[in-house]
Amino acid sequence: MILDRTGIPYARSGAFEGASQSPRMSSFMAPTIGPNTAVGNSLASLRGRSRQAIRNNPLAKGGQGTFTSNMVGSGITPRFQFKDPDLKEQVQELWLDSVPEFDFDGNADFYGLQAVASNALFSDGEVLALFRPRNSYADLAVPFQVQLLEADHLDVAYSTTLPNGNKIRMGIEFSRTGQRVAYHLHKDHPGEYFMNDNSAVRTRIPAKNICHIFDPMRPGQQRGLPGMASILAKLHEIDQCVDAELVRRKTTAMFGGFITQINEYNADDPNPLGFSQGAGNGVDVVALEPGTFPVLLPGQTVTLSQPRDVSGNYVAWMKQQLMDVATGMGITYDQLTGDLADVNYSSIRAGLLEFRRRIIQLQNKTLIFQFCRPVIQRWLTTAIVAGALSIPDYLQNKRRYWRGIHWQPQPWKWIDPDKDMKGEIREMRAGLKTYGMALADRGLDVESIFNEWAEELSIIDKLRLIFDTDPRNTAGTGVLQPEQGEGDEN
């Protein structure tokens, strides 16, 4: 017995079972390593296996599609909330001209770049966006483009200390105070084996000219991890299990039954029933076809094949495994599998609300903050310097104009439009929600909508038209509204 300094025996077990060193927990290995050591030792393997899973596993491919369709959809669009309406219109028009010209590679517009970046976040855990200033010969609305690069360009194994005291860790250069100052990128993708003469050549890119988009999970984390990092092993084993079950069913389905010959029979014809002699192991095989009735010889009986069916336990077990996979991917089970057999309005609504909260968090944490925000700030500055826009005090008050830019993700579709619409109307009538908030949820601008309404209503009044959807003339039930003063007493 071991006593403490007061004479009280020490407890034989720790205060927390999770920290116990008992045989029960002896196989629970948990190295206490830093975030970057953990990432650096595993990133290349995780990234390669994640991409392989997406190439060959339909669950992984579908999970990536669900993630990106909800993260981006048709695009995360900017809303310019400037006090000057003329400036707002000018910036909006210039933005619309620039949207299809953003991609340096020419494969997508700005919102397509968002989708590609989201795909890379899921498969690789990170993606790089390189700012590419252009000259007047490029014939762009604003001489500025963005080039997306895979994280392979940023060598996770490249770490050293520079003569000026700066440190390079996993390809990222940090100042003495710990600030990111540059990225050392392979000029060509190191995984391209054809026509690649510069894979070993690194280029130093100042940090202000590049966006590093990833989801840091631990303080100080410098590189991102694939979205399937926690379920890659399980997904691989599920894939093997499905293949094994498929082969088992295929194999057992090939045998219709077995013919047993009790007494040995020697006939002049060595193959009276048309047995196949191709096995080469002395075992005859009868080829079965629909509608055929082979005649058995004396002493022969038929035993039909009765393969063991494990479908009951298999389905329940597989469903639980796929629930774990969906959780690891950050999506819901029904989104992963398309299985809506056991859902109802309440359950699917609860699941989607939780999923949407996570997506909104990721949108603001990664795509909006790390990609959309710096891109549009550089775009606006370039437009001013190039003379595409005229804002006299912009360079002195950049942040004031940047604060007027808000990002609106694609609005969520209602699960039950009738119920959700009634609930929203009650919120608005109770003063808990404004028209602007309701329209913003749909990705619309209240000022633009009201201006459109004013124009349409003026045309309706001019032509003396009455529509059932006009609350000035008809009630919600379709009954005409009483004219003003009609019910007043004299």
From TrEMBL:
Any one GO BP annotation for this protein: virion assembly
Single Gene Ontology MF annotation: structural molecule activity
Protein name: Phage portal protein, lambda family
Organism: Desulfoluna spongiiphila
